[in-house]
Design brief:
Blueprint (H helix, E strand, L loop, with lengths): L1 E3 L14 E9 L5 E9 L28 H15 L5 E7 L11 H4 L3 E4 L4 E4 L10 H20 L46 E5 L2 E7 L6 H16 L17 H8 L4 E4 L2 E4 L4 E3 L2 H17 L1 E2 L1 H15 L4 H4 L2 H10 L5 E2 L2 H19 L1 E2 L10 E8 L2 E6 L3 E6 L10 H19 L7 E6 L2 H8 L10 H21 L2 E6 L6 H8 L5 H11 L9 E2 L4 H12 L58 H8 L1 H7 L28 H7 L21
Parallel strand pairs: 15-18, 17-20, 18-19
Antiparallel strand pairs: 1-6, 2-3, 4-8, 5-6, 7-8, 9-10, 10-11, 11-14, 12-13, 15-16, 16-17
Helix pairs in contact: 3-4, 6-10, 7-9, 10-13, 11-12, 11-13
């Protein structure tokens, strides 16, 4: 609603926000990508008061939404469906809501807080519907879209629904099912750490104005027809069918033009800006996005400087990329700090560290273009577990399968790297050893465990600065993190990290410290004194020269620091109080009442405990700390609940409440809008 800008001061409670144009892409009815400009309100803009319109939203009163983890839920469902139905096609259908935000209107009080202006024309505009850029918008619309998604799921699973008779008239616009040729093999689904119920008839999820429907096409079934018709019937019913003599012109709620391009069940479908291939279980970045994003980064690197808006746009794109390649988030902090310093400037110079991060992002973009396996994105059960440790004089580690390694730092290279850095390097080497040996292969999932909280944190994120850290130490640490990210990305391996108590890390501790014992003696000591931490097969193998050369070159680049020099201490396992080794076998002569001692490596005292005899049992034992951490992840991250909104979404997802909105914009009715409960949900509520 246009109003004279010069008269706005006569209205109470109005709030202004800038207006912008956001460049986007959409598709036509033929599926062709076309450019689209969208009018947005920058309601996060901070005025001189230091506040913004969005900052005044009471987040405690916001209605819970579920759309945030939609992408991850789709991927987990697809992998689980492939595991349970290995030879059946998985199909996707996508239906858009037409002009979603235009259907949710605002009352007078809220509308006055969504104003924008065009000073040149002495005009102010008051939004009468939901705005793009207002934090309450997604949840205001979610109060409509999410129940429609719930209804879609109910219809899909209704035993008595005849989808040939009870249907939306517009479903005739849905294209026929498209399947890939028999020459394309079905990719195997790898074991998940979560139990996802898969109804082959299908499931539906929603991301704001996109309704995504998945199904399994079993032999003789018509599940492909079921999912598309169920979603359209749910929308048609909720929106109220149009009357032939509708007094106010109103379009159908389903975007009919896009039905021809997106609603048809297919094994290959663009969903939320990503190209999904459910036959090969891959997610890839569409070519048009890859070209635009990589060219923008390349231009930034060439210019050596960047404008704040351009940098902000790049950060947004990389955040989108991080949904598929989580390693992206490890290297975003320096770019975000650069953007913070660029505010109120025309351009800012890009330092060498950020240039290196941008170069790494190009590697991630290339990987995303080729396609990332859904097995590497889903909540996987680790196939390999590793433990590592270090001390100022050495590093060591081993796998659940019993392959161990150790490396002792030459005297001239000691006192250079901090122990936190050595701990981090040790966790990387332990994985790298198995990659070079061919024991860790494409599609596998590894769990790197360390008793250093700092090292475990660096495995998840590399901050641009750490308290009391030398710049050269930070430089090496970041380089090591970039190397590890590149190694795993190119190898197609998923990685988890987890801290565990040092008292359970005797094996790795001894590997890193006991340089006075040969491999056989150290193995015997470990089997004797900490048998519960040693797998059935345990073998200390030489560290590959490629790794030792890499580690040595890193240490040579670091200067010696007196405060890092300390006296080397060895473990106390199997030693007398004075530190000397305890005899492994008696050297006294044999008496008539005794028999010949058994060979050390065959001693029954070193026999593995019965419950450790199976390789998988030992791996499960190593993973206990990680499994406990996974149990704290909310279930809605991997499986969408229907009909319940009892617990909150992630803090990064802004939500809104409709309770106050309805109280001031509608007459009293018998049905009350429920307020959010403060009670914590029970484990079974999701």
């Amino acid at each position: 609603m246009p109003l004279p800008l010069s008269k706005m001061h006569r209205l109470e409670d109005f709030l202004m926000a800038p207006m912008n144009i956001q460049q986007q892409n959409t598709i036509d009815e033929h599926g062709m990508i076309i450019e689209k400009d969208r009018l947005t309100h920058d309601q996060s803009y901070e005025w001189t008061s230091g506040t913004s319109v969005n900052s005044r939203v009471d987040s405690e009163q916001l209605l819970v939404t579920r759309f945030g983890p939609c992408l991850r839920r789709i991927i987990n469902w697809a992998v689980s469906a492939r595991i349970q139905h290995p030879g059946c096609p998985i199909l996707a259908s996508k239906i858009d809501f037409k002009s979603a935000y235009r259907r949710a209107h605002l009352n007078a009080l809220i509308a006055m807080q969504t104003c924008t202006q065009i000073p040149q024309l002495d005009l102010a505009f008051v939004a009468l519907r939901l705005t793009f850029g207002g934090s309450p918008g997604p949840s205001e619309w979610g109060a409509i879209a999410e129940p429609i998604c719930d209804l879609t799921n109910a219809i899909i699973r209704a035993e008595d629904w005849n989808f040939d008779t009870l249907r939306d008239p517009n479903d005739v616009l849905v294209p026929p099912t498209k399947l890939l040729g028999d020459e394309v093999p079905f990719e195997e689904g790898r074991q998940l750490i979560v139990d996802i119920p898969v109804d082959p008839r299908g499931t539906s999820d929603v991301y704001i104005d996109d309704l995504i429907n998945l199904t399994v096409l079993e032999d003789g079934s018509r599940n492909d027809i079921r999912i598309a018709r169920a979603a359209l019937l749910a929308i048609h019913t909720t929106a109220r069918p149009l009357h032939p003599e509708e007094p106010i012109p109103r379009e159908e709620m389903a975007a009919l033009a896009k039905l021809l391009a997106e609603a048809g069940p297919e094994e290959v479908k663009i969903i939320l800006g990503w190209l999904f291939n459910f036959r090969t279980l891959t997610v890839s970045l569409p070519d048009n996005k890859f070209v635009a994003w990589s060219n923008a980064i390349r231009q930034m690197q060439k210019d050596g400087k960047v404008a704040p808006k351009e940098l902000e746009s790049t950060i947004g794109r990389l955040t989108h990329l991080g949904m598929i390649l989580p390693f992206v988030f490890h290297f975003m902090s320096r770019l975000r700090e650069l953007h913070r310093r660029s505010l109120n400037r025309r351009t800012i110079a890009i330092n060498e560290t950020c240039k290196a991060d941008l170069h790494l992002m190009q590697t991630f973009l290339q990987a995303a273009r080729k396609g990332v396996s859904m097995n590497l994105i889903a909540y996987r059960k680790p196939t390999h577990a590793y433990r590592s440790d270090s001390c100022p004089a050495g590093l060591g580690g081993y796998s659940h399968a019993g392959w161990a390694w150790r490396f002792y730092v030459p005297m001239e290279l000691q006192g250079r790297a901090s122990n936190n850095l050595l701990e981090h390097i040790a966790s990387i080497i332990t994985v790298w050893v198995d990659i070079l040996a061919g024991r860790l292969k494409k599609g596998d999932c590894c769990l790197s465990m360390t008793d250093s909280t700092t090292s475990e944190g660096w495995s998840r994120k590399t901050n641009f600065k750490e308290d009391c850290e030398e710049p050269i130490q930070a430089t090496i640490r970041i380089e090591v993190a970039r190397f590890f990210a590149t190694l795993l990305t190119e190898s197609g391996i998923k990685n988890y990290s987890q801290w565990f108590p040092g008292k359970e890390n005797d094996v790795s501790d001894a590997l890193s410290r006991d340089d006075d014992r040969d491999d056989e003696e150290l193995t015997n000591v470990l089997r004797t004194f900490v048998p519960s931490q040693v797998p059935r097969h345990f073998e200390i193998v030489p560290l590959p020269s490629k790794i030792s050369s890499w580690l040595t070159s890193l240490l040579q680049r670091l200067p010696v620091k007196e405060q890092l020099l300390e006296q080397h201490t060895r473990t106390k396992l199997g030693r007398f109080p004075d530190g000397s080794n305890m005899p492994i076998r008696s050297a006294s002569s044999m008496t008539t009442s005794s028999t010949t001692s058994q060979e050390a490596k065959e001693s029954s005292s070193w026999e593995p405990l019965p419950w450790l005899c199976g390789k998988q049992d030992f791996q499960e034992k190593l993973m206990i700390p990680w499994l406990k951490a996974q149990s704290e992840i909310p279930s809605h991250m991997w499986f969408r609940p229907s009909g319940t909104t009892t617990d909150r979404t992630l803090p990064r997802t802004r939500m809104a409440s409709l309770a106050d909105f309805y109280l001031v914009s509608s007459e009293d009715s018998d049905t009350k809008t429920p307020t959010q409960s403060s009670r914590k949900p029970s484990p079974s509520s999701c």
